[in-house]
Amino acid sequence: AVEQQTATTAEISRGISVAAGSSSEIAANLEGIAELIRSAAETADAVRRASTSLSATAQELARVVDRFTY
């Protein structure tokens, strides 16, 4: 009975160690995902700013061309 209890305790301990390792890996992966999301948000903001600037430039160019057209 003692041997069975020792084996069971060892198996439980091994399972806890595996779960702890998996939890650490999941946490690291979530940190990586969060960083990718932050980077994507920064990139999206840069694209938005660039498109706003491009739109303003296009409008100005259209005004300049209109002066020559009419």
Describe this structure as you would to a colleague.
The protein is an all-alpha fold and 70 residues long. It is 97% helix and 0% strand. The protein is built from 1 helix and no strands. The chain has one helix at residues 2-69. The longest helix is centred in the middle third of the chain and has 68 residues, at 2-69. The mean pLDDT is 94.
Show the helix and strand layout:
Layout: H1 2-69
Brief digest:
The protein is mostly helical and 70 residues long.
User: In total, how many beta strands?
Assistant: 0
Quickly count the helices. Answer: 1
Mean pLDDT: 94
Sheet with most strands: none
Strand fraction equals under 5%
Uncertain residue segments: none
Order of helices and strands: H
What best-fitting shape do the alpha-carbon axes yield? rod-shaped
Distance between the termini: 101 Å
Q: Share of helix among residues?
A: over 70%
The Cα radius of gyration reads: 30 Å
Structural class assignment: mainly alpha
Labels describing this entry:
single chain, 70 residues, mainly alpha, 1 helix, rod-shaped
